[in-house]
């Protein structure tokens, strides 16, 4: 029986940062993009997302949508104002409800998420049912919590519920969730801390520390009192375990964490000096890929 291979720091990041870089290899980028359509909104020159061809074929597109096979564009005539765009987008999603796992859109979730231009102008909200299908850039907040014990600092690590559709039973960041429309990152992570881990709002707001941002994550830490113990609250997690840092790193290398957790943990390890230029020859590339700029463009 062979030992399970361990991932390097760069391999952990590469598992998440999978979209080809046009500047590095235009042919590889174009090959990857051949099955995608550009999600366009009338009145704006740049795309807002990339939609896979299988999604295009599954949806009953209302009259205010145009599928341009030649230019590989999915064009949304959303009207001239925010409200009309939102209404037409909702009509599209509700006209194509999820009936099985092969449906184009996920189930209606009653949570609105924003769509921005490259200049960060907020032009539209859509329900979470359409976020993945339209390939928009969706922002989230991630929090890692720790406690100082007699044997050193330990980190609260949840195990995802086995019933989760994505990454069931895998390890996760202490708390995390998508940033809703018109919600501040701090309000988002405080809300998620209460919903996922049962952390009281007063403790969360008093102790959460902002640690910057990655490509599409706002990153936070929280030092918790020893008598404040995270616990499964909304069914997202099945348990929380205290782990020493070497245990966390070992679990990361074995692939026990949900893939995108590697981004948050790698940023933490660099921020605290555990990963540095002396012990990681690829640190420049890792840092660049942690902060990849995700402007959407047409080739």
TrEMBL record:
The keyword Hydrolase applies. It comes from the Eukaryota. InterPro entries: NUDIX_hydrolase-like_dom_sf, NUDIX_hydrolase_CS, NUDIX_hydrolase_dom. Residues 129-265 form the Nudix hydrolase domain. GO terms for molecular function: 8-oxo-dGDP phosphatase activity. Keywords: Hydrolase. The keyword Magnesium does not apply. PANTHER family: THIAMIN PYROPHOSPHOKINASE (PTHR13622), THIAMIN PYROPHOSPHOKINASE 1 (PTHR13622:SF8). This is Nudix hydrolase domain-containing protein. It comes from Periconia digitata.
């Amino acid at each position: 029986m062979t030992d399970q291979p361990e991932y390097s720091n760069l391999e952990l990041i590469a598992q998440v940062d999978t979209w080809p870089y046009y500047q590095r290899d235009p042919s590889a980028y174009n090959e990857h993009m051949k099955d995608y359509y550009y999600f366009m909104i009338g009145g704006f020159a740049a795309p807002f997302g990339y939609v896979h061809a299988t999604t295009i074929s599954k949806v009953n597109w209302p009259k205010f949508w145009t599928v341009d096979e030649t230019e590989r564009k999915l064009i949304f005539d959303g009207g001239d104002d925010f409200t009309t765009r939102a209404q037409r987008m909702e009509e599209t999603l509700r006209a194509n409800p999820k009936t099985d796992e092969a449906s184009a859109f996920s189930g209606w979730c009653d949570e609105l998420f924003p769509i921005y231009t490259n200049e960060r102008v907020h032009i539209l909200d859509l329900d979470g049912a359409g976020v993945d299908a339209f390939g928009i850039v969706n922002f989230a907040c991630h929090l890692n919590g720790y406690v100082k014990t007699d044997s050193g600092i330990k980190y609260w690590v949840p195990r995802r519920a086995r019933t989760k559709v994505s990454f069931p039973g895998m390890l996760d960041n202490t708390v995390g969730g998508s940033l809703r429309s018109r919600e501040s990152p701090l309000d988002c992570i405080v809300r998620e801390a209460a919903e996922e881990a049962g952390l009281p709002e007063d403790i969360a707001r008093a102790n959460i520390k902002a640690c910057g941002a990655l490509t599409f994550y706002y990153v936070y830490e929280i030092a918790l009192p020893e008598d404040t113990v995270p616990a499964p609250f909304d069914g997202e997690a099945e348990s929380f375990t205290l782990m020493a840092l070497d245990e966390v790193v070992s679990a990361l290398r074995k692939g026990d964490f949900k893939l995108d957790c590697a981004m948050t943990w790698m940023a933490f390890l660099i921020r605290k000096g555990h990963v540095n230029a002396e012990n990681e020859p690829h640190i420049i590339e890792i840092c660049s890929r942690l902060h990849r700029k995700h402007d959407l463009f047409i080739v």
